[in-house]
Design goal:
Blueprint lengths: L3 E5 L4 H9 L3 E6 L4 H6 L2 E4 L6 H11 L4 E4 L17 H4 L5 H10 L15 E5 L9 E3 L2 H10 L5 E4 L5 E9 L4 E11 L9 E6 L6 H15 L3 E9 L4 E7 L6 H8 L3 H9 L13 E8 L4 E3 L10 E2 L6 E3 L4 E9 L2 H17 L3
Parallel strand pairs: 1-2, 1-4, 2-3
Antiparallel strand pairs: 5-6, 5-7, 8-9, 8-11, 9-10, 10-13, 11-12, 13-17, 14-16, 15-17
């Protein structure tokens, strides 16, 4: 065993699995505590609201000593006496505020959608804080703006010009001054409703004519960010343009497809980068990996045990879990030698899983 690590945040399964596969003993503090999180962890603490997270960390820390602390979404800027393996709080703050991130991109001379002023439409409206794109919306007039502000009262936001293209990201590791791109990913978004811009899956690798520009911008941004470990830079990629959208200064939702496609272990790369060691350029991915998050299409209680589908599912809920309509239910995967083959197998697996959700 390489040591005992505590992974804490809203969702931790993907990081806990990577850490376990890297040879660490893992404990987790997690909002969901799904079945498969228990497979990769020695101990777990569940919490409901983010304000409960510090107390949950305190409870598990009284039961175990830890060699490393790795925060995920929701825990990035928590004060801790544990040995942090990731980006220090004083460097992470500007990437938790989308306006500060906007100014950072501009200071790096990296293309970014421009800010819109009051009354300028259409505009992409985003809360200044928050992950996953769940409250982002394209607003086309004052009526739509007023409706958004009524739906999310007292939420500070930014307004940007629209960028048209494919959502994508680059996974990097950085030691604080240098960076190495690990994988380029296509991102899937919900596409409709209040969560139209919410993350719901990825394909790795993402082959695109602008791939080299994305990698160059991502490594430039990651090296200048002052972050440590694995981080993700989100883009929108057009036919002849690239726009930087966001910096995720933590493990990203693309961990699974990056590891499946490349064969690397991101947790090992993360720890190495935090200790000042960057990997050599990775070989070309040996396969294409695709992930899709399935959501409840109605209020429902899932009585079926999905664990027999573990070869192509993750984030597996416990039987008897209640889901509100629109809540994330389970992740499904497909792999193949080509994008088409991976997506075909993904569709086949989704069909199988849906039979258990009736």
């Amino acid at each position: 065993m390489k040591g005992r690590v505590l992974v804490a945040g809203f969702a931790t399964r993907h990081v806990a699995q990577s850490a376990c596969n890297a040879g660490y003993e893992v404990c987790a503090v997690d909002h969901f505590c799904d079945q498969d999180l228990a497979w990769y962890t020695k101990d777990r603490e569940k919490f409901d609201e983010l304000e409960d997270l510090p107390d949950a960390i305190d409870r598990i820390s009284r039961r175990h000593s830890f060699d490393l602390f790795v925060p995920t979404s929701g825990a990035e800027d928590l004060p801790t006496t544990l040995l942090l393996c990731g980006t220090p709080r004083d460097r992470i703050q500007r990437f938790l505020d989308k306006l500060d991130t906007q100014h950072f991109f501009e200071s790096c001379n990296v293309p970014v959608p421009g800010l819109r002023g009051p009354g300028e439409f259409p505009a992409m409206v985003k809360p200044r804080r928050g992950a996953g794109g769940w409250r982002n919306a394209v607003i086309r007039d004052e009526h739509g703006m007023s409706a958004w502000e009524m739906l999310y009262p007292d939420v500070p936001f930014i307004r940007q010009e629209l960028a048209f293209g494919v959502p994508a990201s680059v996974c990097c590791v950085t030691d604080g001054t240098r960076a190495r791109a690990i994988a380029v990913n296509e991102q899937y978004l919900r596409g409709s409703g209040e969560s139209a811009f919410g993350f719901c899956g990825s394909v790795t690798p993402f082959e695109h004519p602008q791939q080299a520009r994305m990698i160059a911008y991502a490594e430039q941004v990651a090296a200048a960010s002052g972050c440590r470990g694995t981080i993700g830079i989100d883009f929108v990629v057009g036919d002849d343009a690239v726009w930087a959208i966001e910096v995720n200064p933590r493990f990203q939702g693309t961990v699974d497809t990056v590891e499946m496609a490349s064969g690397c272990n991101l947790f090992d790369l993360h720890v190495g980068a935090c200790r000042g060691v960057l990997p050599a350029p990775l070989a070309r991915p040996h396969q294409v990996a695709a992930r899709s998050i399935l959501f409840a299409d109605r209020d429902m209680t899932l009585d079926t045990d999905l664990s027999p589908l573990k070869n192509y599912c993750a984030d597996i809920p416990w039987p008897g879990t209640f889901f509100e309509e629109g809540q994330a239910l389970v992740s499904v995967y497909g792999c193949g030698q080509t994008r088409e083959a991976a997506l075909a197998l993904l569709d086949k697996h989704i069909t199988t899983v849906r039979q258990y959700m009736r």
